[in-house]
Structure formats: structure tokens, C-alpha cells
Specification:
heterodimer, A: 453 residues, alpha+beta, seven-stranded antiparallel β-sheet, 33% strand, globular, B: alpha+beta, eight-stranded antiparallel β-sheet, seven-stranded mixed β-sheet, 32% helix, 37% strand
Chain lengths: 453, 275
């Protein structure tokens, strides 16, 4: 009996020790696995499909929305010029510079608060608006296109009462201890104003540190005020704006450009057949849609019916603005895909969103280094039709634009205003305009409000 | 098979796996460090060729430097307001992320980006600066708003005690998250920006030091900086307001040069103005 006891005890202990060691090793393995993941994530050099990154996402330790959140607004919402008025005077960021975007980043939180907390918008007169432009503390942002207020609010993560109107520019001022918001409505040109719950300190902080750089609003100069709307920021564009060379894009089967284009319209080798038309147009046909790439560079996508289109991810869109925001975002992806496939330099900006029966027509322009390409009939535009929640038609007659090292002379802002033929009925913008040599030169262009409509 | 034998096999297998994982981790770290050291030396040489010298040791090798996201916590804000101002607070949401609470004993206003303005009356006046620092910590802790790893510095000014709360992220300063607690005339006022906690690592990350150094020199030249020497680089964060009231803590360099101090966003690779 004693002998049995003596042999049983060490065996029991050995098993317990083995179990403990097993548990310890499992824990160590998990710890090492976690440490490897943490190191990879923190050093930031892991590819997106790394197993550790996927594991982190699964556990919810990586916030996927952060990048999206940090964008704040899609690129198509960025203003083209901006001005800040503070203790140091009026600071302007002219079209063609990147400073307007830096100003936008400063003003964005105040704009979100002001737009989201704006009370009832009331009409104001030109003289009341001029008085607001003289405010000691103010921020003015001007957009290239017509931005529906509801859409702007969505981009800023808030909602706004005056959703149905659109604007070219928005003015924030400190008045009576609070922030007041003004805008000129498009297309009627009427001026509106509302009190907001944003505190004056928020705007004071946003404009702090900037000093006068020679910019002024048009109303401050009697001569200029005859030609331009009083809120136009008058200052010469930055030096060194170069010309553009335009060429017809080349699409060959299997090229990166073609892959980008096919991915944009969600085609692949299994869903689309390819053939060449008599005029050399490349045609891809899927069951319910067609993609045509003409030799001159025109790209058109058309869906025969809704199920052949590109779906808009509306999510749980409850309001018209949320739906419009989802539509514009999807349209922007398509437009950017087209421009990216064509190659060269340039990005898209929102020109206009027009609600139509059962959907929207969204028009994007193409800009190179903050300056839109083309003017009037030569504008590089991308038309996207969205019907019943899908992109049913997209059309881009785009060229491949590349910046040269050549620079052209163009008039100063004041001289250009005088020569523009405007009488306060439009805006003076920089555009790349094609010359006889096929080169696009920067030039002033009078954008009449009626024409913009 | 006998269970004891299974355990032995498992132990041996796990030992192998652990050694493999440990070896892989050590090798990755060692390899990364070696490459990074070399890349940094190359970057310093390139900068010097471009006319910008870098003081020895000014730029360190990368440490963990992720971008953090912080969701706005409305429940926490309301609880804080009720704790400090009493249960009979009236809540008003003005839109645009502005939420205010008012009661007989004061008011509180919370805004996107962690901005807070809180004023409560009937507060005992501290007797010294040291006392004020402790009282500020106690007030924020009571409201469950006290940031972790914060440093309280108090001073007396015109009969009031002003406590500056320096907030830190991963032991690094957050440059634009100034918060002050002021005690005067029997009231306490909290004003500034507060880190709320509940942070998540994002998929974004800071540029490696060699990459950041080159980008900084290039951006400084674009901004027509006259800097010829980088004296010191301090790692920190700046808080950026994201859509929907969230805050992103973005890695930042505070670069001290012979031509002044610059702040450099390590994610976007551009110079920024920090309030």
C-alpha cells in the first residue's frame, strides 16, 4: 500500500505541473501574439491585410472611421479662396494657393457650430451685408461651385434649417457677443443672415495670429465695387502659376488606366465583354450597362436600367440632405475614378447638384492646383446622373493635363475686374483657358451668376 | 492516446510556437531599428546638403506614435454637469454640437472638440496656490472629467487662483489642449479643452523620423523659412476636431530651429499652426 502511495504522489504532481506549464505557455503565446500585433500597429508599417491588423479590427481596437472622420469634408467641399479679419487686419488667401485650405481647417469647427446652431435665416440688405464685411472679427470662405447648404452641413457633421438653398460663399462675423452667419443665396443672389449659438471666442481663436497681407473685400474699393460683388476678395494670385499641356489620354487593354476605369464602373473580366466600334471607340458591355471610351478621350458610362447602375450607399439616410450627401459622395468617387484613369494632374470639385425627378444631376469640374480647367464651352466637366439611388450615367470629355514650367502673363486682379465687363453680376475667377497653341494658360474669367445657373 | 502524453506534445508544440513568435518579434524590432538608424543618418546627410544641419541627438528613433480617436461622450458630460451643478439642471442643445446645462448653482457648456466652459458658485476659496491645484484636481475628479496623466500648476493673480492643467497623451504634451481652472469670488470656472478618455488607436500612423525630417525640411523651404539648423525636436500631439464632434490626436513635432519654432504634422507631413 505504502509503495503505491509513494509512486502515485509524484505522478499527480507531475501532471499538475504539466497543466500549469501548458496554461503558462498558452498565455505566453497569446501575449507574444498581442505584442507582435501592437508593435506592427504602432510602428505603422503593417500592410492593410496583415493578420494582426485584421485581428485588431475584429477586436474593435482599431477605429476604422477615424480617417474618414479626420477628412471632415470631402475634397469637393474645400473653398478656393478665403479671408480672415482679426486684430492684425484682413488676411486673404488667393485662388491658386493652398492657404485657403489651411484657413478652412481653422474655421471648420466654428462653421460647423454656427451652421448647426443657426436660428431662423432672415433677409438682409446689401448695406447690412457690407457692414458685416467690416466686422473686426470675421471669416469668409468662397467655394468654386454652388454648394447646397444642407450638403455643406452634412460634410461638417451637423444639420441646418436653410437646407434648400445653395451658396458660393459664407461669412462668419462676431457681432453682439456671438457669431453671426451670412451667405448669398444661389441662384437668386439674395443675402441671408442668422444668429448662432457659437461663442465669439471660437471665431476669435480661429482668426488669431493672422496679419494683414494687402487683401481687401471689393466693397472697400469704390472702383472695384462697381464690377464685383462686395464680398469678393481682391488680391493678386500667387506668382509662379504655370501653363498646362493637354493631351488625349490613351487607354489600352490591361493598362493601369484601363484597370482604374473598369474598377470605377465595377466591371471585371467576368462581367464585361469588350469590342471596338467602327470609329475606334472601345466599348465594354455588361448585362445592363455600357462603358464607351472614344478616341478623343470622351468616357461615357450608361446603365440601361437601375440594376445596371452603381449603387449609392445611403445607409440610414433619414433626411434629404443625408441622401444628397450620399449621392454626391458616390458621384465624387466615380468622377475621381474617371480623372484618375485619364491621368496627369488634377482633382475634382463640386460645381452643382441639381435635384430632378427621382434623383440628382451632379456636375464636377476639374481643377489643377486649385484652378479650374476650361471656361464656358471648354470646361472640363463630369456629369453624373443618379436615379433611384444608383449612378445611371456618367460622362467626361477629359484630357490629360500636365503642368509645364512655362508661365504666362496675366492681369492683376483690379485691372482684370475693370476689363471684365461685370457689373456686380458675377465673379472673377482664375481659369485655365486653352490657347491657339493647345496649351492651357491661366487667365481671368468672368463667371456671370446667370451663366452659372 | 494517454492525456499525459497529449499534454507533453502540446507543451513541446507551444514551446516551439512561442520561440518562433519571440524570435520573429525580436528580429523584426532589431531589423527595423537597424534600418531606421541608417535611414535617419542618410536623411540628416541629405538635409545638410540642402543647407539645414541637424544637431546630434535632436531627432530620436521612432517610438510608438499612433493617431488616437476619441468619441464625444454626451452621457459623461451630462453626468459631470449634474454632479457639479446639481440634479436640477436644464439641458439645452443649441445645435452644432453645443450643449449647455444651467442650474441655480452655475452653468456648463460643452462643445465639439472637447471644449468646456463650466462655472459653479458656492465654491470654497483655496488658501494657497498648492491648495488651489489640489482643489482643481478634486473638482475635475468629482465630475469624472480629470484627465489622466495631467500636471496641475497653480498661481495667484489679482486675488484669484489660476490652475493650468497640462494634459498629456502617452506621456507627450498635447499642445493645443489648454485647460484652466480659476477660483475667484467663491466660484470656480473651468475653461478650455478636456481630454475625455475612451481613446481608440486609428489605422493612421506618424511618419518615421527619417521621413518626417526630410518632409519637414522640404515644407520649411516651401514656407520660405530661413532655418539653417535644427536644434531640438520634441514629440507631442495636437487635437484636431473631426466630423461629428470626435477628436483626433495627431502626432506632431515641435521643431526648434535657429529661425524659430515650427509645428509639424507627422501624419499629413505639413507645417501647422498650433493655438
Amino acid at each position: 500500500m505504502q509503495k503505491i502511495k509513494l509512486t502515485k504522489k509524484p505522478a499527480h504532481l507531475r501532471e499538475a505541473a504539466k497543466t500549469a506549464l501548458l496554461v503558462l505557455l498558452i498565455a505566453t503565446a497569446l501575449l507574444l501574439f498581442y505584442a507582435s500585433w501592437l508593435y506592427g500597429v504602432r510602428s505603422g508599417d503593417m500592410p492593410e491585410d496583415n493578420v494582426f491588423v485584421s485581428f485588431g479590427r475584429y477586436l474593435g481596437l482599431i477605429d476604422e472611421r477615424a480617417e474618414e472622420l479626420s477628412q471632415g469634408a470631402s475634397a469637393s467641399a474645400l473653398p478656393v479662396d478665403a479671408a480672415l479679419a482679426g486684430e492684425g487686419g484682413l488676411y486673404g488667401a488667393p485662388q491658386g494657393s493652398e492657404e485657403a485650405q489651411a484657413i478652412y481647417e481653422r474655421v471648420r469647427p466654428v462653421l460647423a457650430e454656427a451652421l448647426g446652431s443657426a436660428g431662423e435665416f432672415r433677409r438682409v440688405t446689401d448695406s447690412q451685408f457690407a457692414a458685416a464685411l467690416k466686422a473686426e472679427t470675421a471669416a469668409y470662405l468662397e467655394y468654386e461651385g454652388e454648394i447646397p447648404i444642407g450638403l455643406l452641413a452634412q460634410w461638417l457633421g451637423v444639420s441646418c434649417e436653410a437646407e434648400s438653398r445653395a451658396l458660393h460663399g459664407v461669412l462668419l462675423t462676431v457681432e453682439e457677443g456671438g457669431v453671426r452667419i451670412y451667405f448669398r443665396s444661389v441662384p437668386d443672389g439674395a443675402l441671408y443672415c442668422a444668429d448662432t449659438a457659437a461663442g465669439e471666442k471660437t471665431l476669435l481663436d480661429a482668426v488669431a495670429g493672422y496679419t494683414a497681407n494687402g487683401a481687401h473685400f471689393a466693397f472697400a474699393d469704390e472702383e472695384i465695387a462697381r464690377y464685383l460683388p462686395q464680398e469678393s476678395i481682391v488680391m493678386d494670385p500667387p506668382h509662379g502659376i504655370c501653363d498646362l499641356r493637354a493631351s488625349v489620354p490613351e487607354f489600352t487593354a490591361g493598362s493601369e488606366a484601363m484597370k482604374t476605369l473598369l474598377e470605377t464602373v465595377e466591371y471585371n473580366a467576368y462581367t464585361a465583354r469588350k469590342y471596338e466600334d467602327l470609329d475606334g471607340t472601345l466599348v465594354y458591355v455588361s448585362e445592363y450597362s455600357t462603358l464607351r471610351i472614344e478616341q478623343g478621350g470622351r468616357i461615357t458610362f450608361s446603365a440601361k436600367e437601375a440594376r445596371g447602375g452603381l449603387a449609392v450607399r445611403e445607409g440610414e439616410a433619414a433626411s434629404d440632405s443625408e441622401r444628397m450627401s450620399a449621392v454626391v459622395e458616390r458621384a465624387r468617387q466615380v468622377a475621381e475614378g474617371f480623372v484618375s484613369a485619364v491621368g496627369g494632374e488634377g482633382g475634382v470639385y463640386l460645381q452643382r447638384v441639381s435635384p430632378v425627378e427621382d434623383g440628382y444631376d451632379v456636375i464636377f469640374g476639374v481643377a489643377v492646383r486649385e484652378i479650374p480647367v476650361g471656361a464656358g464651352g471648354t470646361s472640363a466637366e463630369i456629369l453624373i446622373r443618379v436615379r433611384s439611388g444608383v449612378v445611371t450615367y456618367a460622362d467626361y470629355s477629359g484630357l490629360r493635363y500636365e503642368v509645364t514650367e512655362e508661365q504666362s502673363f496675366f492681369l492683376g486682379h483690379k485691372q482684370a475686374a475693370a476689363a471684365s465687363g461685370l457689373h456686380g453680376d458675377g465673379r472673377l475667377r482664375l481659369r485655365y483657358v486653352p490657347g491657339e497653341d493647345g496649351i492651357y494658360h491661366p487667365a481671368w474669367f468672368a463667371v456671370r451668376d446667370s451663366a452659372a445657373r | 492516446m494517454e492525456w499525459s502524453r497529449v499534454k507533453t506534445i502540446l507543451i513541446l508544440a507551444l514551446l516551439g510556437v512561442n520561440l518562433l513568435l519571440l524570435g520573429n518579434l525580436m528580429n523584426t524590432i532589431w531589423h527595423d531599428r537597424r534600418i531606421e538608424r541608417q535611414a535617419l543618418a542618410d536623411a540628416v546627410a541629405i538635409c545638410e546638403k540642402q543647407g539645414v544641419s541637424v544637431s546630434e541627438g535632436a531627432v530620436g528613433l521612432s517610438t510608438s506614435y499612433p493617431v488616437y480617436a476619441e468619441e464625444r461622450d454626451y452621457t459623461k458630460e451630462e453626468a459631470a454637469a449634474r454632479t457639479i451643478l446639481g440634479e436640477k439642471v436644464v439641458r439645452t442643445a443649441a445645435g452644432g454640437g453645443i450643449v449647455t446645462y444651467v442650474s441655480d448653482t452655475g452653468s456648463a457648456s460643452f462643445r465639439n472638440g472637447g471644449y468646456v466652459e463650466l462655472r459653479c458658485t458656492n465654491t470654497a476659496m483655496p488658501e494657497s496656490a498648492h491648495d488651489a491645484a489640489r482643489a482643481a484636481g478634486a473638482l475635475l475628479r468629482r465630475a469624472r472629467l480629470a484627465p489622466e496623466d495631467a500636471v496641475y500648476t497653480a498661481r495667484e493673480e489679482a486675488g484669484a487662483y489660476i490652475v493650468e492643467v497640462a494634459q498629456r497623451m502617452d506621456k507627450k504634451p498635447v499642445y493645443n489642449m489648454a485647460l484652466t481652472v480659476t477660483f475667484s469670488d467663491g466660484s470656480a470656472q473651468v475653461d478650455g479643452r478636456l481630454m475625455a478618455g475612451g481613446l481608440k488607436v486609428t489605422a493612421d500612423h506618424a511618419k518615421a523620423p527619417y521621413e518626417a525630417l526630410l518632409a519637414f525640411v522640404s515644407e520649411a523651404k516651401k514656407a520660405e523659412s530661413e532655418a539653417k539648423r535644427i536644434i531640438r525636436v520634441e514629440q507631442g500631439y495636437f487635437a484636431s476636431i473631426a466630423t461629428g464632434g470626435s477628436v483626433l490626436y495627431v502626432p506632431l513635432w515641435r521643431v526648434e530651429t535657429d529661425a524659430g519654432v515650427y509645428y509639424f504634422d507627422l501624419v499629413k507631413g505639413q507645417l501647422v499652426t498650433v493655438e
